[in-house]
C-alpha cells in the first residue's frame, strides 16, 4: 500500500520546472529581510495622485538596478487573508478554502517551512509584528514553521497613540524592530509585518501628507493616505538599514499580501483606474500585488510572468542557492525559463498566460476580451488549465487537512521540534 503522499509527489514531479541557473545562488549567504506590505496593491506602484507619487520610496526600490520586480504577480489568499499569504510564502502550500489554515492546523501540523530550512542552513530566524502574538495563531504556527524568535507587541515600548487598528503604527513599529534586527546573529532570515495600511484606513491628521482620493466612497478614499504613510515608513527603514550597513549585506524582499479595496467597491475602483466600469477581468487584474527582491549584485529588471504568492518560496530558494529536491511545494521558480504561468485563486478561478477566469467569466488575458463561445480547441485548453488548478488546490488541501508532511522524509530537512521555541517575554 502506497503512501497518501504518492499521488501528490507524482503531480509535483510531473509539473516540475528547472530553476533558472543564471539566478542560482546570487543571494547566497546574505541576510534575508522580508517586508510584508499590508494590503498594498500593485496598481499604486508608480501611480500619482494630484501630481504626487503615492509610494515614492517603494517606487525607487522597485526601479533600483539591483531589484528584480514582478508586475504580474497575484495574491492568492482566501478567508485567511494575511495568514494565507504567510502560509503560501513560507511553505508554498495554499491556505484552505474556508477559515485560516494557520489557525486550524498551525499548532499541530508538521511543516517543512522556510524559517526552519533557513535555520538548518545556518541562519537565525525571527518574525516581527506589532499586534498581539495570538492573532492568526502566530504564536503557535511560527513554532511549527521553525521561527526562533517572534517579536510581537509585548516586545515593544508602547506609549499613548502608538497603536491604531490591528497594531503598532508602521513607523514606530519599524523603528523599534530595526533595533532588534541589528542584534540578530548574521546571517539572519527576518520577516517584518506592517499593519497601518489595513482596512478601515484610519490615520490621524499629523501623519497625513497626501490628500484623500475623491471617488466619494468613504471606505476607499483614505486608502491612498495610509498607503502613503506605509511607504514613508519603508523609506525610513531602508535609510536606517543603509546607515547601519545591513542594506548591502541583505537580500530585501517586499510583497503585498492581498487587496485592500474589495470587489464591493466597483464604482470607486473604476474611478481610481480611470475606467468607465469594471469587468470581472478588471477585478482579476486588480488582485495583483507588489513582489520585489533586491540584492547587491542581483541583475534587476521587471519580470512579466503571471505568477503568485505560492511561487515565492521556490523563487527565493533558488536565489539563495538552497536546493530542496522532492519538496512538497506547489509553486515554481518564477524566473525559470519554463515557468508555467498558471495562477490559481483560492476559489478555483485563475489567471494564466492565455486565459483568465474570474467570477465565472472567461477572458483572453492579453486583451481582456471576453470569450463567450468557446471553440472546441479553446475548451480543451481551458480544461487543461482548470484541471491543473483544481488538482494543486486539492492536493495542497490534502496535505494540510491530513497533516501529510508528518510522513514526508527528505534528507535535506530535519523535523521541527516545536518545544524548542518559546516566544513569551515574561516566561523566556
Ligand atoms: C493582524 C494583521 C491583519 O495581526 O496581520 O491581518 P488581516 O486582517 O490582513 O488578515
Ligand atoms: Mn493582511
From TrEMBL:
Its main location: membrane. Residues 30-322 form the Sulfatase N-terminal domain. GO terms for molecular function: metal ion binding; transferase activity. The keyword Repressor does not apply. The active site is at 82. Pathway: Cell wall biogenesis; lipoteichoic acid biosynthesis. The keyword Protein biosynthesis does not apply. Substrate binds at residue 198. Mn(2+) binds at residues 38, 82, 257-258. It is a multi-pass membrane protein. It comes from the Bacteria. Keywords: Cell membrane, Manganese, Membrane, Metal-binding, Transferase, Transmembrane, Transmembrane helix. Belongs to the LTA synthase family. This is Phosphoglycerol transferase related protein, alkaline phosphatase superfamily. It comes from Pediococcus pentosaceus (strain ATCC 25745 / CCUG 21536 / LMG 10740 / 183-1w). The chain holds residues 224 to 651 of 724 of the full protein.
Amino acid at each position: 500500500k502506497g503512501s497518501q503522499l504518492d499521488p501528490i509527489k507524482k503531480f509535483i514531479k510531473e509539473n516540475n520546472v528547472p530553476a533558472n541557473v543564471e539566478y542560482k545562488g546570487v543571494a547566497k549567504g546574505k541576510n534575508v529581510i522580508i517586508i510584508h506590505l499590508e494590503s498594498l496593491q500593485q496598481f499604486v506602484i508608480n501611480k500619482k495622485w494630484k501630481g504626487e507619487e503615492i509610494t515614492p520610496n517603494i517606487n525607487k526600490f522597485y526601479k533600483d538596478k539591483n531589484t528584480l520586480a514582478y508586475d504580474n504577480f497575484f495574491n492568492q489568499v482566501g478567508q485567511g487573508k494575511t495568514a494565507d499569504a504567510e502560509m503560501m510564502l513560507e511553505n508554498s502550500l495554499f491556505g484552505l478554502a474556508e477559515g485560516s489554515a494557520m489557525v486550524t492546523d498551525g499548532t499541530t501540523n508538521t511543516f517543512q517551512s522556510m524559517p526552519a530550512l533557513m535555520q538548518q542552513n545556518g541562519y537565525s530566524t525571527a518574525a516581527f509584528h506589532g499586534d498581539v502574538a495570538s492573532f492568526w495563531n502566530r504564536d503557535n504556527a511560527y513554532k511549527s514553521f521553525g521561527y526562533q524568535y517572534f517579536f510581537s507587541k509585548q516586545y515593544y515600548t508602547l506609549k499613548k497613540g502608538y497603536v491604531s487598528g490591528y497594531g503598532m503604527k508602521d513607523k514606530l513599529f519599524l523603528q523599534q524592530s530595526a533595533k532588534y534586527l541589528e542584534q540578530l546573529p548574521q546571517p539572519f532570515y527576518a520577516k517584518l509585518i506592517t499593519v497601518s495600511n489595513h482596512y478601515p484606513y484610519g490615520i490621524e491628521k499629523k501623519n497625513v501628507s497626501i490628500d484623500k482620493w475623491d471617488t466619494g466612497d468613504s471606505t476607499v478614499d483614505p486608502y491612498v493616505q495610509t498607503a502613503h504613510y506605509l511607504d514613508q515608513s519603508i523609506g525610513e527603514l531602508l535609510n536606517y538599514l543603509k546607515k547601519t550597513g545591513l542594506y548591502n549585506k541583505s537580500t530585501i524582499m517586499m510583497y503585498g499580501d492581498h487587496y485592500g479595496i474589495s470587489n464591493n467597491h466597483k464604482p470607486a475602483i473604476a474611478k481610481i483606474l480611470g475606467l468607465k466600469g469594471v469587468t470581472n477581468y478588471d477585478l482579476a487584474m486588480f488582485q495583483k500585488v507588489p513582489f520585489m527582491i533586491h540584492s547587491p549584485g542581483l541583475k534587476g529588471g521587471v519580470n512579466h510572468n503571471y505568477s503568485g504568492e505560492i511561487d515565492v518560496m521556490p523563487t527565493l530558494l533558488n536565489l539563495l542557492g538552497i536546493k530542496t529536491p522532492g519538496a512538497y511545494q506547489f509553486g515554481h521558480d518564477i524566473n525559470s525559463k519554463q515557468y508555467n504561468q498558471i495562477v490559481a485563486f483560492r476559489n478555483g478561478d485563475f489567471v494564466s498566460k492565455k486565459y483568465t477566469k474570474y467570477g465565472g467569466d472567461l477572458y483572453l488575458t492579453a486583451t481582456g476580451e471576453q470569450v463567450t463561445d468557446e471553440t472546441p480547441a479553446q475548451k480543451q485548453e481551458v480544461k487543461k488549465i482548470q484541471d491543473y488548478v483544481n488538482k494543486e488546490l486539492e492536493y495542497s488541501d490534502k496535505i494540510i487537512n491530513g497533516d501529510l508532511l508528518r510522513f514526508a522524509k527528505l534528507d535535506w530537512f530535519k523535523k521541527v521540534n516545536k518545544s524548542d521555541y518559546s516566544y513569551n517575554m515574561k516566561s523566556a
